[in-house]
């Protein structure tokens, strides 16, 4: 069964100076090299499964609920392996600290909205989305068509940047469907094979990374194909 991977844009926003940068990423033609952390990171081939796939027990429900933690950790491990192999500092995920809830909440809310509204993919009659600048045939996965929110506005709405002399955020998105296209390995491989997404991953200025995965496709082109998983990751720097 063929699966399609939605190309996405990368949006970076810098509060200091109130500037924004947007670039379009097209699918890379060449096959990406083996990920640096492929042999060292756990659960990189994990497939997000529905609740029905688990026993109807406390343990089963717990295992279903913790899938996103394993996927999040796998993505961060793969990303940091790419960074450290290039002598870049690893990205952190803060838990219970001042900045922790902001980017994590912004990432989680965006992936949930994406799966619920399903506006990613091609611009089609009756479909509510903002076309990508420079590619009017494709919907912008980073701008919520219902609220108009962007990576910067979502981060600020959750309080990111408060108390910072300056801060910056960036967002990568990915959606895949069909076995082999929904795993952390598939998402990071695609990002690393796309120049703008790779630039976010390897940006030495960023210090934080939050990744959220949701069961289901943000692109209606997936139809009823399963499994389908949508990823959103946000990078941050608070100076």
From TrEMBL:
Keyword S-adenosyl-L-methionine: yes or no?
Answer: no
UniProt keywords, alphabetically: Signal
InterPro entries (alphabetical): CAP_dom (IPR014044), CAP_sf (IPR035940)
Q: Name one Pfam family in it.
A: CAP
SCP domain mapped to chain residues = 79-208
Gene3D superfamilies to which the protein is assigned, alphabetical: CAP
| Keyword flag Signal | yes
Q: Which domain of life is it from?
A: Bacteria
Q: Where is the signal peptide?
A: 1-25
The UniProt entry, under PANTHER family, shows: SCP DOMAIN-CONTAINING PROTEIN (PTHR31157:SF1)
Q: What is this protein called?
A: CAP domain-containing protein
What is the organism of origin for this protein? Sphaerimonospora cavernae
